[in-house]
Design goal:
alpha/beta; globular; three-stranded antiparallel beta sheet; six-stranded mixed beta sheet
Length: about 260
Amino acid sequence: MTPAVRVQDLDVTLDGTHVLRGVDLAASKGEWVNIIGPNGAGKTTLLRALLGLVAFDGEIVIDGLSDRRRSARARKVAYVPQTPVIPPGMLVADYVLLGRTPHRGVFAAETANDRRIAAEVLVRLDLGGFGERTVQSLSGGERQRAVMGRALAQQADVLLLDEPTTALDLGHQQDVLELVDALRRERGLTVIATLHDLTLAARYGDRIAILARGRVAETGPPAEVLTVQNIAEHFGANVRIVDDPEGPVIVPTAAASAQNGDQP
């Protein structure tokens, strides 16, 4: 099967710093791959390369398209950034409607179908009564859900999420990730996300890739990748792993316990 996303021998240099080195990664249609790694590993840069926002060497193919122009990928890839740029005074409804722009052009008026899709997304994100408020008036968590709404309204085949649970409380973290999971099952959506929370990364996703020192150090199912040894090596953290039917639970622990191999 041809992967929905294929990255091969990807190199990115920013301001003289070699950020990514020979990265290989693939995701099948409908698969959810979570990218984890320490700060500075290059996770956000990898997503930006997939979007065509940074220059790179190597090959990136999305749904059979290798065109590096951002405009060529607009209908295929939606993106939820960590720090979105939001025009001052923009209403939530209008902001979410921006996700429909690739389907109608920058200067074309939105259609009734565009408005219907945006309204449905707002309801599913628990923002149904927020359409006439400005995005700036929202709380951090509400704003993050609005940003997610813009991406989901795009109805792209590939969704890139850069720390999508930032500023969300526990309940809305679950709501957003459950919604993404439901959409990928309904529409065969391919999801590539970066997450700091390793337990969430294990619970929501088919496969995990550890990005460390600009390279993919390991990739595979959560239970195989999220080990005490891997977390100690790549994150410098002492943890124990609690087995759970829905995925491993990562519990910080004292150094002495980790050295003793403390696992239930």
